[in-house]
Amino acid sequence: MLPREELLKGVENRDGVARVIDQAEQAIKTWEVVLTDFLSPPELAEIQRVFSRLTEVQLVAWGGYPQAERQRIALARAEMPLDQSQVAIAAMEIAGNFLFDTATHRDFLGSMLGTGIVRDKTGDVIVLGERGAQVIVIPEMVEFLEMNLQQVRSVPVKTQRIDISELKIREPKKKELTTVEASLRLDAIASAGFGMSRSKMVDLIDAGDVRVNWKEITQASSQVKSGDLIAIRGKGRLEVGEIAVTKKERYRVQLTRYM
After folding, report:
1. 165-189 pLDDT, tens per residue?
2. What is the pTM of this model?
3. In total, how many domains does the chain have?
């Protein structure tokens, strides 16, 4: 059996991680590949961190395309072959004429949940503007949504399965920048990367709106390091690249902002 209490020590998403530990034990016991539902980025990051300590079980995460935020995990014994193709997902198109009644991500998600399915059964929603949206779901939901999802806002829609290769993925816009700072404090690096005042950044950190590697950080003085991913709710993400020390003993930091 896995060392449950030790693995759950200091974990934020305790219920979600505990559920995946149960599924990992099932995978070890049955010699089968066991799938989770879709997980949010914070849950995913925490599970990957917790499971990296284990040698008896392996996992693969996949959400339909490389930048997918919500992903399912396949779990199996370490001795078994395991790859992305074993993570069962399906893509669907929600087609309608949204020219005069524009629908947002929240509208499409709300209409899906309004049919009675739960959030864990759905992955990313890709909004296509006036033509509707594409969604990623667990395969068992396809038939149900084809029958039951018939309207989004005031617009009648046709919901049908499509091939994963038909997903219209837009590459995220990104901007490379360099900043020179006296320290590697989170408020200093993040305010430079997101182009806002340090005091505004401190307010966002205090409010719990800032995550580093998907973990909520509420101390502006937290230190960042190369490879860290800083996310602010509604404002995109910032990746910390190479860090060098200048002659004046300040830090030159390469940043990539994703919008």
Report:
1. 999 987 778 899 999 999 999 999 9
2. 0.78
3. 3
